[in-house]
Structures
1.
Amino acid sequence: MTDDIILLEEADVRNDLEEYQTYTVVVTVKNTYSNPDQGSGNRKLQYIDDTGTTRYLTLWANSTPEAVYDFDFEQDATYTLTEVQFTTNESSRRVFYNLNATEETEVSHGPPEDDSATNRQAITSASEDLPSTGVATKDAVAEEQAPTHTRESPSLDEHIDDALSEVPDPATTQTRHALTAFASTGRAGSLTVHEYELVAVNGYLPDDDEAALRDTYKARRQIARQHGDRPVVAVVEPLTLVALEKIDESAIDIDDFRLEGPQDALPRL
Amino acid sequence: MSGYQVGLNSFGSKPADFPHQREGHLDHLTWYNSRPALQFFGFDDPVNCDALIGDEIRITVHDDHVCSSCGGDVDPDRDVCWDCADSPLMTPCIWNPGTECSWSDCPYPEYKRDACAHTFVVYLVAKDSVKVGITRADRRQARWAEQGATHAAIIGECHNRKVAGIVEMCLAEEYPSKADSSWYIPVDDPVETLVEAAAEAGECFPDRLAGCYTLDGLSTAEIRERVVSVPDRSTRVNDEIVAGTSELSRGDRQRGHVVGVRGSVIATESFTFNAKLHAGTRVTLETTGDLAVPEEDSNT
Ligand SMILES: [Zn+2]
Ligand SMILES: [Zn+2]
């Protein structure tokens, strides 16, 4: 294991952590879940990382000490967990980043003791993704201004707005026959997906697929930050992204890449 | 084909008091075509649970397991493999769509298109009490049977998974939504209990989604007609006794006579076997009955 202490809220696990290493992590728990449909079960601690992404630290029932598995995690409280292992895996050409408690994991309330504060400092500033000089990059500025870090849980009305956001109007009017406007089975046809390709520029070439995939995720973050109202962008495969709305390629600046949009939107049925 | 019906004698070890055996990693108990059948990963044919009723079985729950979701290899300390752990199915937005789904900002647009952007129904089921749930409209029969409900009624039709999840969340204050899968003692008079709950449930819909309630203005008699009884195999079961017996756990082996099947549970007079708790685990099922699934009805 390493002595590194990782503040998950200030980390980008994809770049900051090394595979198969175990870490002491400090996590502010946004929520806890367990999946009732999964055998002996798991608990997931939800947090939001430095990129504004919602992520999970997983406690598996059969590999986490009971005291940790049954620990009463409170919402918005901060905890320190030791011996948390970081792994990645690839499936269907996507990379997954996993933080799992181990049999040695211990949990305590709050951040770790003071004597580790300097250590902690060192880790965060050494992380590759942060600017190492005093020159603030565009990323860092955008990061500070991004409002997504403080996330209040949405109201019922906001949830309903969101849930109905893609439902055609006639279906939502208060006729008491909400469903007359669309078929009850079959695939939804109204979702249009725009596909974008990352074209390397300035002679840059990713080393391999894995590197290309990392670049693609990084590009996804850069697009989200540089675009006014964080569009829905998903990684399809290395160097290919899809978005639910059109993105103005010329307004997006991505390190080492140019974003190449579709000639026409591809309707997916 | 029935190559899996290995006579125990062929191993030369035990007397043949159980002429039929299936050993494999358990998938789940399905109610496809309203017939209970135990599915194992890697086997084309499930085990016909109807044929077990009245017969003696012996079940061994072993220690090793595969991914409970796909049946693939998995590290011994995990329930599901890497592939499955981060699939949309395993995310909170699917378990709790009412509060956790960010519909318009969905990280899985393709999954959303295929699995969420469809009509979802909100239903009430009768078990030991009335519970609320949601499911894709076309999946409801199987869902209720897999849950082991005795009766069910659709009370809402919603535009997509998240809308249904919101309604479910609002109803969950009245009726719990996360049901225990163990054998239970059914509520008294499940049909009337369900009718009463269904008639009142409209009150719990948020105003803006009131149009999703499908029983508005219906009489009690009309609502009663909409209650469906869910297929199970529990008419011969003494629920008080069975609900009090122990559930098999990992490492256990027990024998008993099968008295019934409901939801994910096979009941004997002395223990129950809840398939849902052992998804992915290697299980040996030995029986005096026949394991084969009957030919499908030609009219289905
Ligand atoms: Zn799997
Ligand atoms: Zn969702």
Note: Chain B has nine helices and 13 strands.
2.
Amino acid sequence: MSFLTIAFVALFYIATLILVVGLARRIRLYWKTPAPLKIPTTPAPTTQSGVALRMFREVVFFESLFKSTKWTWLFGWVFHMALFAVLFRHLRYFQEPVWAPVAFVSPLFKYLAFAMVIGLLGLLARRMLVDRVRYITAPSDILMLLLLLGIGVTGALTTFVAHTDVVAVKSFFRHLMTFNFETMPNVPTDPLMVVHLLLVGVLMIIFPISKLLHAPGVFFSPSRNQVDNPREQRHVSDWAKKLEN
Amino acid sequence: MAKAEFEVPELTEYTEVPKLEVGAMAHAKSFVAAPEFQQALNFKGELQDGWEQEVIDHMGDLLGKYRSLQVYLDSCVKCGACTDKCHYYLGTKDPKNMPVARQDLLRKVYRRYFTFAGKYFPKLVGATDLTREVLDDWYSYFHQCSQCRRCSVFCPYGIDTAEISMAAREIMDRIGLGQKYCNEIIGKVFRIGNNLGLPGPALEDTLEGLEEDVFDETGVEVKYPIDQKGAEILLVTPSADFFAEPHVDGLIGYGKVFHEAGVSWTLSSKASEAANFGMFIGSYENMRRISMRIREAALELGVKRIVFGECGHAWRVAYSFLNTLAGPFDFLDPKYPVPQHILEFTWGEMQKGTLNIDKSLNDDLVLTYHDSCNVARGSRMGTEPGGQFTIPRNVIKAVCNNFVDMAPETIHEKTFCCGGGGGLLTDDLMELRVKGAKPRMDALQNVIEEHGVTNMAAICAICKAQFTKVLPYYGMGMDMIMSVHQLVSNAIILTGQVTEDDDDESAEDAA
Ligand code: HEM
Ligand code: HEM
Ligand code: SF4
Ligand code: SF4
């Protein structure tokens, strides 16, 4: 195994561990922290299935953002949907045999790399050009966009310009996933793929310690996930129960 | 009176999003509570050495108690969608009045002391140490948020800056840096029973006066009872309803509706206040203590139902929290929701047809309606989501022929705050109140010009008081603002009432 390969083995094991354990702990924290009062932003659904629908519209259509600012919605939504499609397509680097739907959309979905990059560029432009957004921007907010742009651009270049040895990449990750180090191939050394993988590792590591927590966070937001039924049901948290004695 | 030491914004056809003016409202600071008022609420009297550590400890405590706080502080992606949604930003141009920037005042400290990135890379993620300057900013800007929740409507994760403001105020209260206006008032509720500090005998006098007024006007003996054991309904209403204009005309209206509906009802001297400022200061304990008075009053008087009068935040606490804080209300009649809003009651009677209404009695008015934030975005009326918008309008349209809504982006869930909610209805924040009212005033001005609107109805004591003060700054009459039940009161013909027609005829006869 080359030094690069060993480094990537270490990187991806560590990054995966941080991502999984970090996210699990965060989600556990959100789960365990009580929501002592009913605070859905009304008008809110009066049933649990209504809440599921509201959440679905938030996650799939970014409904609130749409009400809010059309440009941010456009760029943000395009970026996210392209991102999910790209990730879906990426399953083929990890599956053996490749799941039929993944294989089916693969040829088409590769073009979504452009949508993803355009969305990110739009968000970056807004962040730098609109004075209000610039005011609330910390360096990490810019770096986050650059990181994703870096991943997207290197990926797109590999796909459309300078191809890499996809078979080797896949084989490497299959070996990683099955903890099989004996026949582990070397990762390709073309700079685009190396940078792509390096940046992905960084993304995985910062995911649970950054604002990317919005992905699990949205599901735990009391103003969006609560049923509007406070007159019918009491909603006393454990710590508040102690006040009742 | 309407002479200002600050520049009153000029009204525009549409509320434009202003360019930032850094520090424009840094000077706005409401008075700090004196130690005795702090202690009455079980808070520390004043700041003491080592307050920094106390802040961090209390923040940790609240993070463990409120999922909202924990999730909201983590989840914001700084997308900026909320930045132009706050009336205080639109009116003052101060960037720290943009909802996300207001949250960031707390978030940057949270990040510094509670997150990996903030501990090791503070500059990168905008985390800062807790200093006196930071605390002063908190005090200033968390008392420039009316907790109206407009930002939460537009945030992709529903991040509610009101929750952050409440947490910040609770932390400041606990370390001895409370706000005079809110804490003094809560103290009065505990000592005397209501925000205005009106003792029981004064209330009785006032109510007798109302009975006389209504009798003189209509010839009908409508009762305004207090502490009447065995009445069916306990009415809990904001204390402004007892005497201030236009609030009191609303109270007169509730009495007429109850009278015509043929139900017995009573006020309570113990729970002679619907307002619950415990919410404004984010204090679960105080909010609960204030709510318990209502439970106790209901038990002592042996009523079967609880109805709330026209008040915005009080209705949010009542609708959303009362059952949780002071329930279960299994001793009340299970046929009715607990509590009910007076408008739910009145609309119900209108549908039953028990009220005799002559709409033409309001023909001199062209009305619009101001959705109060806490009713619009923190509660409901009726059984359907959005009943908080339709029921008040249905009632207004049932008693008035002329009604127009303001622009769609300024009503319903997108309504703009009056500028005085959330514990900011104090003279020491006058500049903020006037400027924060601008978006609402813009929309109002528009319907005045286009549709000849003469009056605006509201169902919140704070909105009514705020508009009464602020309208003159914008060159409008303070009496433009009306209670919804004032309109009902105008149009209702009581059984056995000497009607206007009779009066007119006799007037004509005399002429
Ligand atoms: C449940 C899944 C997710 C939902 C519902 C969601 C939703 C959103 C929304 C509504 C925004 C604000 C609008 C915008 O700026 O685009 C946003 C921002 C953002 N999201 Fe997500 N997201 C999800 C997952 C992810 C994932 C997996 C990533 C990255 C790997 C990500 C990265 C970002 C970034 C970087 C921003 C900030 C964009 C900016 O700087 O303007 N999101 N997300
Ligand atoms: C361990 C994880 C990943 C591996 C092994 C990986 C590998 C690859 C490979 C081999 C390609 C080139 C495909 C070709 O030439 O046909 C590619 C392309 C691409 N990658 Fe990744 N990638 C990973 C994670 C990600 C992530 C997290 C993102 C997005 C944030 C991303 C975005 C892209 C894009 C946009 C393309 C170009 C379009 C496409 O081929 O679908 N990749 N990636
Ligand atoms: S709750 Fe209302 S006042 Fe407070 S930041 Fe949000 S929009 Fe502004
Ligand atoms: S809309 Fe929500 S996520 Fe976007 S900046 Fe405002 S608070 Fe943050």
Note: Residues B 85-86, 88, 99, 102, 145-151, 161-162, 417 surround iron/sulfur cluster (ligand 3) (CB under 6 Å).
3.
Amino acid sequence: MQLFDIIGPIMVGPSSSHTAGAVKIGYVAGKLLDEPISEAIILLHGSFLATGKGHGTDRALIAGLLGMEPDDSRIPNSIEIAKDRGMDIQFGEISLKDAHPNSVLLKLTGKYGRSLDIIGESLGGSIINISSIDGLSANFSGDYPTLIVHNMDQPGHVAEVTSMLSHKSVNISSMQLYRESRGGNAVMVLECDQEIPTQAIEWLKKLEGVEKVTYYSLK
Amino acid sequence: MSFKMLSDIVNESNQKQIAFWEVVLNDDCKNEGLSKDESMKRMSDIYLAMKEADLNYDPNALSSSGMTGGDGALLEKHRMQPNRLIGDFLTKVMEKAVKMGESNACMKRIVAAPTAGSCGVIPAVLITYEEERKVSVNKIVEALYVAGGIGEVLAESAEISGAKGGCQAEIGSASGMAAGAIAYLEGGDNETIVHAVALALKNMLGLTCDPVGGLVEVPCVKRNVSGAVNAIISSQMAIAGIRSRIPPDEVIDSMRRIGNLIPECLKETSKEGLAITATALKTVVH
Ligand code: SF4
């Protein structure tokens, strides 16, 4: 552990997993949707459901969706702020299969029609993992620029993506592949050391067999 | 690379003829690719955030469970009483520790050190020290490096989360870190610093984590007081020349083993202890 993970972080309490981690899950989800959120359905699982209210997990998730970071002192008032911005919020319960006790399913719809389903887990400290995007597995922490490509399970897509990245001098720090079934829907999750240029992402979106491209930028 | 043992820091300090805190600073610069000035700026920002959190205490705030709030104000009032048993320094430490714990429970901005639950211990001790002993902020920042280095060893060789090691890992670690920091501020050498840590940790071994309703409130808030006061008495014993009969790194290793042996029901799961008392079950409605 690094020094400033021990003396720090600066955060809004009370809990690094149930508050700070929840802000981070909301933050990553909001960035992935990449447009103002018009509707957020928030389904809490396990310990998030049991102790979430007392830990402000609800307000923390909304704060993150609004783009606040874990040390933002507006977190306690996030629900009112979201309403002012026209975000429709619904909370509910869910029992997710094989999920970490601190998990949430976020179903987001954007102002311009994009939609996104995300499962986020808060692993302790304020470390998180995004474990699923639109029903397909994914595993990433939000600590790196991350590219998520949904595509048909056909030969060649991995090579297209990785050669594009090498062409743009982007180094891959981790890469995962998942698929529903042979020849069905597949997803690639690439955590990178550098940011990926916007035109490269636009280019990817136009490729045949690529269904959806989502990019999480640290900027 | 994080330090595995307190003796790693002490040996490097002795070999290179630099202070304990500088060993920790140099290591942070190497790990994060920062200059000394950048790292120290970061640390003083952290200390500033601690002081801000202390000043922003709201005596009227109540946590959403309704269990926490107002106790810091009671201690502040008590501090104004002429016929107090305990002196100014310690009374102030108690007050600041409760205030910070309460602020955390009431969703205010705090500094996790090492965790949010134990966020009151280190600032209570250091802010009071700065105010009462009139030392410079730079000196306090140095003491924070001492605390941080001790915390790195605890994270590496024991645990610093209640879920993994029980409360000895949270309030206990914070107390050990604060004890070392005070020993440094009071002019203790390396040996005095690490023995202050050992004496503080030994008083906290075996402390379990059984928070009511799974919330970071009961017993957490008031445990910050005991962690802070324990840090001070332990540092004073060390300054007086008292040495832990069990060497500091062996104390930390026993903390790790004890942490492993504490059953799951007493590691932040709220399945035993205070969390299942009749009153706890009545107070917290799920
Ligand atoms: S009882 Fe548990 S939650 Fe509370 S401070 Fe101790 S370790 Fe943290």
Note: The longest strand of chain A covers residues 115-124.
